[in-house]
Inverse folding.
């Protein structure tokens, strides 16, 4: 179990680093082709398809989201050039049929127009074992304030 | 039963005459806190304000919370199926009796001393009532009921006791509300959820934006780039036959895609490539061709934005609600809608399209919010600078309905809103 915990922790830390340092192509490559990236509004639901979410991306939408971030066409992506996120509090919820489900806390800070803002969230990953590593099958970011108002978010949580 | 509880305390004596002209408005309208205070009273407490859609309170015990300006209200449905709009404050010591966006309850109980109110606002329970013997009668202290009326599912409330009937207030906008509600694809419109976000700017910046087609290809370039060729053509509307029409009372409509004004027209048109998978899914569910064509035509929403002064718009495929927080902060709700009882695939696709553009993580909204924030920041520059709303002023025509109209990217709708605003602020 310790080896698995170490492995998923390393994987998630690497993913966080890719997003903070805008290594988006590498981030896209972490995904299973059928994987889902979800930022729900209703933090209780698991029926994302029949709910309105902040983001509910399949592979196509993930690619489009990345294109938007790097194209330079979206003014909102230019004003948050940097995020710093710290995943922690890792716990493995299940490990069966080659898929590890792990939950962690994520403290993410942004600096937009000189204003520091923090978005704390619980993040649950479903990671499919592949060779020595993993593929992301699902990443669900449950923001602490998902049920309230946010500000615009011009990056990937 | 309606009482006049218009809040008239601390209303500053503000004279904005001269700050709103036909072709320009003064920058201080975005940043002067005394003007903002006056707006809450003279605009928001003095007209019909949108508080919800009937589908948000579908059953006995359903409720949602909303605001009239800064005043918190509850929209509830009682045991007889009647809708009520109630001030969200206990009659004892003012604590709110209802929190959260929406839900179901049997009653509203004050958390402070336990006063309990029925769904229609009646005061039912007072703990240790004997100390009130000869002091107060329960029937005299219901939650304060706010006058409300509905049109085509939209619930509006007013704190102005002698406000004209809602249908008169909506006037020329009713035709467009009727057209807008056709996007249920043959099913009644149902709220599916909402995106909520705030931006550091004045509420009127948002009001202007919903009738501003001019910004679309600039601010939303990245959104258009994310579309397939056929769809991006649909959104290339600035040189098309669209128009903006002044509907009176501050309302206006901006038609961007004329062929999507009436979603029950042109039902024989071929299914666009981008909806072919959706059509196939409906066919798999056993829907016949007529219904498939109707649902395909409705799924992307209407080709226009209807601005209803002062706080709601029927914007292509969703309701856009603004809530003033302070002179330089505004909360926006983008309310996703679908069809009540419609095939799951229809409502799913509508939510996915909504997520694509709308909300704090959409491909459109964050860029709007960035532009609005920059407007607020820039508006502090200069000792006596103005916001221009004169675009298209020399090319006005009369619409088929006899209204003043301009090109799709004219600022006709902004001028309509500011004309009403000026009248209310100087009344």
């Amino acid at each position: 179990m310790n080896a698995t915990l170490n492995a998923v922790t390393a994987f998630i830390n690497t993913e966080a680093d890719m997003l903070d340092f805008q290594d988006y192509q590498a981030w896209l490559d972490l995904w299973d082709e059928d994987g889902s990236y979800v930022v729900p509004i209703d933090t209780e639901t698991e029926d994302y398809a029949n709910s309105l979410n902040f983001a509910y991306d399949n592979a196509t939408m993930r690619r489009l989201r990345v294109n938007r971030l790097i194209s330079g066409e979206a003014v909102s992506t230019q004003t948050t050039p940097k995020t710093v996120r710290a995943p922690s509090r890792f716990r493995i919820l299940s490990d069966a049929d080659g898929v590890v489900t792990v939950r962690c806390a994520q403290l993410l800070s942004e600096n937009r127009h000189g204003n520091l803002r923090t978005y704390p969230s619980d993040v649950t990953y479903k990671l499919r074992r592949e060779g020595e590593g993993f593929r992301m099958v699902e990443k669900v970011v449950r923001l602490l304030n998902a049920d309230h108002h946010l500000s615009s978010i011009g990056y990937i949580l | 039963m309606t009482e006049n509880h218009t809040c008239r305390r601390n209303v500053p004596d503000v004279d904005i005459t001269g700050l709103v002209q036909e072709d320009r408005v003064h920058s201080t309208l975005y940043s002067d806190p005394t003007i903002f205070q006056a707006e809450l009273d003279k605009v928001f407490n003095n007209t019909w304000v949108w508080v919800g859609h009937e589908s948000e309170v579908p059953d006995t015990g359903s409720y949602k919370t909303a605001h009239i300006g800064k005043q918190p209200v509850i929209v509830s449905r009682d045991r007889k199926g009647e809708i009520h709009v109630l001030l969200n404050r206990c009659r004892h010591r003012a604590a709110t009796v209802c929190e959260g966006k929406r839900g179901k309850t049997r009653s509203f109980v004050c958390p402070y001393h336990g006063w309990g109110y029925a769904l229609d606002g009646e005061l039912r329970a007072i703990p240790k009532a004997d100390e009130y013997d000869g002091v107060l009668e329960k029937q005299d202290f219901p939650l304060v009921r706010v006058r409300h009326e509905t049109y085509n599912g939209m619930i509006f409330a007013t704190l102005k006791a002698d406000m004209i009937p809602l249908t008169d207030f909506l006037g020329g906008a009713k035709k467009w509300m009727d057209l807008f509600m056709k996007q249920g694809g043959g099913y009644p419109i149902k709220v599916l959820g909402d995106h909520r976000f705030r931006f550091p700017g004045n509420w009127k910046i948002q009001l202007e934006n919903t009738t501003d087609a001019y910004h679309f290809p600039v601010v939303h370039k990245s959104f258009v780039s994310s579309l397939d060729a056929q769809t991006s053509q649909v959104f290339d509307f600035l040189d098309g036959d669209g128009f903006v029409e002044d509907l009176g009372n501050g309302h206006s409509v901006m038609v961007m895609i004329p062929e999507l004004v009436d979603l029950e027209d042109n039902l024989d048109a071929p299914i666009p490539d981008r909806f072919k998978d959706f059509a196939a899914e409906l066919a798999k569910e056993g829907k016949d061709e007529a219904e498939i064509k109707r649902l395909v035509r409705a799924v992307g929403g209407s080709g226009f934005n209807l601005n209803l002064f002062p706080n709601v718009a029927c914007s292509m495929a969703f309701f856009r609600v603004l809530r003033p927080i302070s002179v330089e902060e505004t909360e926006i709700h983008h309310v996703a809608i679908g069809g009540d009882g419609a095939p799951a695939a229809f409502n799913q696709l509508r939510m996915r399209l909504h997520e694509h553009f709308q909300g704090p993580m959409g491909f459109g909204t964050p860029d709007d919010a960035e532009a609005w924030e920059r407007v607020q920041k820039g508006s502090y520059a200069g000792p006596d600078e103005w916001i221009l709303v004169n675009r298209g002023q020399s090319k006005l025509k009369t619409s088929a309905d006899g209204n003043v109209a301009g090109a799709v990217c004219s600022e006709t709708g902004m001028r309509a809103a500011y004309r009403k605003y000026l009248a209310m602020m100087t009344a």
The two ends of chain B are 27 Å apart (CA to CA).
